[in-house]
Amino acid sequence: MLNIVIFGAPGSGKGTQSELIIKEFGLEHISTGDLLRVEIKNKTELGKIAGQYIDKGQLLPDDLIIDILANVLEEKKNAKGIIFDGYPRTIPQAEALKKMLNKHNKDVNVMLNLEVEEEELINRLIARGLIQGRSDDNRETIQSRLDVYHSQTTPLVEYYTKEGKHHAIKGTGSIESIFEQIKTILAKHVG
């Protein structure tokens, strides 16, 4: 089983690269952002709570995200592998993910870190907001999301570096050239 954490600031290309990894390696994809957007769209109780945090560019409380992920992981326990997109975002979430996977004698194999300059991220997100009509892709919310990302999620780089799983990926250039970097890394983890 190949379990991947794909990591990067909002707009770094995690979703795009995840799609290519899925196609190439036949993995499942869990995007906490997608899961939450469905809940918000369906106006569930969770969606209402999540919307309040997301509209302000804040992260949801760890316990809420961990509960959501535990349910989804149980559904995908027989998958060939999973790409975790947008999760974990904090050290407690990384530790919870490790425990959830260890229950099934699994672990995270690799953490891919898509690195993109901040101004490029802002430009990408504003463009995405115009194309997709996403309310959370405006300059003020984007800056708030990037600030939260840097303060709360950057420690994960150190966490996964200590575990020997962190791989930095230059997240600029063509989609194909970024994916080539990823394939080279993942090829070492596929048996």
Blueprint (SSEs and pairs):
Layout: E1 2-8, H1 14-25, E2 28-31, H2 32-41, H3 45-55, H4 62-75, E3 81-85, H5 91-102, E4 110-115, H6 118-132, H7 139-153, H8 155-162, E5 166-170, H9 175-187
Parallel strand pairs: 1-3, 1-4, 2-3, 4-5
- CATH homologous superfamily annotation: P-loop containing nucleotide triphosphate hydrolases
Weakly predicted, low-confidence segments: none
SS class: alpha/beta
**Sequence of secondary-structure elements:** EHEHHHEHEHHHEH
What's the CATH first level? Alpha Beta
Shape: globular
- How many discrete domains? 1
The DSSP helix count reads 9
Widest sheet: strand ordering? 2-3-1-4-5
- The whole-number mean of residue pLDDT values reads 89
User: What is the β-strand count?
Assistant: 5
CATH topology: Rossmann fold
CA radius of gyration: 16 Å
Question: Overview of this structure, please?
Answer:
- The chain has 9 helices and 5 strands; from the N terminus they run βαβαααβαβαααβα.
- The protein is an alpha/beta fold and 191 residues long.
- It has one domain (2-182): 3-Layer(aba) Sandwich (Rossmann fold).
- Strands 2-3-1-4-5 form a 5-stranded parallel beta sheet, with helices on both faces.
Gist of the model:
The protein is of the alpha/beta class. It has helices at residues 14-25, 32-41, 45-55, 62-75, 91-102, 118-132, 139-153, 155-162, 175-187, and strands at residues 2-8, 28-31, 81-85, 110-115, 166-170.
